[in-house]
Amino acid sequence: xxxxxxxxxxxxxxxxxxxxxxxxxxxxxxxxxxxxxxxxxxxxxxxxxxxxxxxxxxxxxxxxxxxxxxxxxxxxxxxxxxxxxxxxxxxxxxxxxxxxxxxxxxxxxxxxxx
Length: 114
What we know:
- By secondary structure, the chain is mainly beta.
- The protein is 0% helix and 53% strand.
- It is built from no helices and 11 strands.
- It has strands at 2-7, 10-12, 18-26, 34-39, 46-51, 57-59, 67-71, 77-82, 91-98, 102-104, 108-112.
- Strand 7 and strand 8 (77-82) form a beta hairpin.
- It starts with a strand and ends with a strand.
């Protein structure tokens, strides 16, 4: 069984920053792709960023240059540093781990508002 625990969401003013964390535990025997999706009200879930087993990173065009994904020293932890946030970044952010199946965290709310 695999579990993902997220933290770091909250309310921030436009232009501010937040850092999301996701820790994976359970039956994980290798390093796989981890990343973040987000879902805003009334919209489909979209990929924000991911990082592969070789530490290659991919970003949605809407967050390039503002968000940075990275792994922790344990490799089963992933972070999403979000800078210059805008109201359009408001969404529930979901961490995921891609093994044979895709595992999801419970989601953390990010609200960007003045």
